[in-house]
Amino acid sequence: MKKKSKRFNNLLNSRSKDKKLSLKDVIDLVKKNCNTKFDESIDVSLKINLKQSKGGDFNLRTVIKLPNGSGKKEKVAVLCEADKIEEAKKSGAEIVGSDDLIEKIAAGKFDFTKLICTPSMMGKIGKHGKVLGPKGLMPNPKLGTVSNDIVKTVKDIKTGLVEVRNDKDGNLATSIGRKSFSSEKLLENYNFFIDALKKEKPSTMKGEFILKSFLTSTMGISYKVGAK
Description:
Layout: H1 6-13, H2 23-32, E1 41-48, E2 61-65, E3 76-79, H3 85-90, E4 95-97, H4 99-106, E5 114-117, H5 122-125, H6 129-132, H7 150-158, E6 161-165, E7 171-178, H8 183-198, E8 210-217, E9 223-225
Parallel strand pairs: 3-4, 3-5
Antiparallel strand pairs: 1-7, 1-8, 2-6, 8-9
Helix pairs in contact: 2-8
């Protein structure tokens, strides 16, 4: 069995005995436990209800734009027509290309974390979906990564647009900020995230949509919080 580090054991020993902590208190504790040298991510993990009265299990896949951003640095690539190259370069994207970018992708060169594609280029990139899909890089209209408005799309991704997707057991997770964020900004992001998810609850579902919620940091321990 892998041994826990002294740092992690100290975090476990310092866990509060108070089970009725407010969300603000939980955020403060998670931030306090960020004692590594890098800017740790503050993450929310949820268990959602998948059972619908009709239509089988529910699957959630959407995007949410956090009011204060996530703090994650995205390296954006834009695949577009040749006459949109200059517009794409001015958008702030790190990588821009047309057929030349498709050739790089075909060669297995994925030096980016997000790929934006214009609608007319989807036919050309579609055959690479089996490679891009498992890496979470395949452009998708539902996720806002297929668009003719390149400037807005790049800006949204770089200023807090996070992708949300549950697994088969109803678990989902995303980052709502960094330890360098103030508690107020993290609180606002969390509440906004929860409210946005609740709007995704299908009408064919009975009972609570969000069953459990936890907050943690990259190298910290998790705290259970009550869903709003």
